[in-house]
Amino acid sequence: MPGKEISLAVIQRLPRYYRYLGELLENDVVRISSKELSERMNVTASQIRQDLNNFGGFGQQGYGYNVEYLYTEIGKILGLDKRYSLIIIGAGNLGQALANYTDFERRGFYLKGIFDVNPRLEGISIRGVEIQMMDNLEEFVKKNKVHIAALTIPKMKAPQTAKEITDMGIKAIWNFAPVDLNLPSDVIVENVHLAESLMRISYTLKDLEASRESDGN
Ligand code: NAI
């Protein structure tokens, strides 16, 4: 809904709704009640109603939610009805793994370039996109609109490279390097740290084991 402020907490939950609704659509489910959705997603029905009411409450009493409508609306809010160009900086293990992943295109993110400093990688093609040297990046950014750069380079190199690429005009960084980038506030930085997820698992496991031990006593 244009103009309506949606809280950040809700926005952060939207990708999960989007994924579930996408699966329902793939299975030709036309409508779903908040109760059914809550069972699938393991979220309370009232949380679902509260979250989805943000979009004009298009759940109807006795009917539930129209899956396709909700999927499309959430997609629009997330900006997924648009196409974004993505480049990858750092064509090592992680960069190549990302480049090989095809599902981003389905979400509207198109891989347009891969860059590295290692001349041994130059010209190697991943899903039809050739790895280029970093020296070409500035020229590339002038000729091609680049919305997002994934940063998969060593941590020591990341802050400087991030600064250089934002000076070139790239305004969104998907940062995988385990370091804070400290960029101007108009640059979007999304940090992805798998190790932090693992730490959250470790924390929960630790709690679980402690409670098992105390149960055993
Ligand atoms: P890698 O060593 O396999 O690849 C790094 C690549 O970056 C190499 O090809 C290297 O030539 C290139 N490179 C180095 N300096 C560069 C520069 N200034 N400009 C462009 N390319 C440059 O390393 P890997 O395993 O792919 O990891 C890459 C980064 O991702 C590291 O910072 C690592 O800590 C991080 N990482 C993060 C994870 C996460 O969950 N966020 C998971 C795994 C790795």
Account of the protein in words:
This protein has nine helices and ten strands. A hairpin with a 3-residue loop joins strand 2 and strand 3 (64-66). A seven-stranded mixed β-sheet has the order 6-7-5-4-8-9-10. It has a three-stranded antiparallel β-sheet with strand order 1-3-2. Helix 1 packs across helix 4 (67-77) and helix 2 (34-41) crosses helix 3 (45-53). It is globular, with a radius of gyration of 21 Å. The protein has two domains: 8-77, Winged helix-like DNA-binding domain superfamily/Winged helix DNA-binding domain (Arc Repressor Mutant, subunit A), CATH 1.10.10; 84-195, NAD(P)-binding Rossmann-like Domain (Rossmann fold), CATH 3.40.50. The protein has 217 residues and is an alpha/beta fold. 1,4-dihydronicotinamide adenine dinucleotide (NAI) binds at residues 89-95, 115-118, 134, 152-155, 157, 161, 176-178, 192-195.
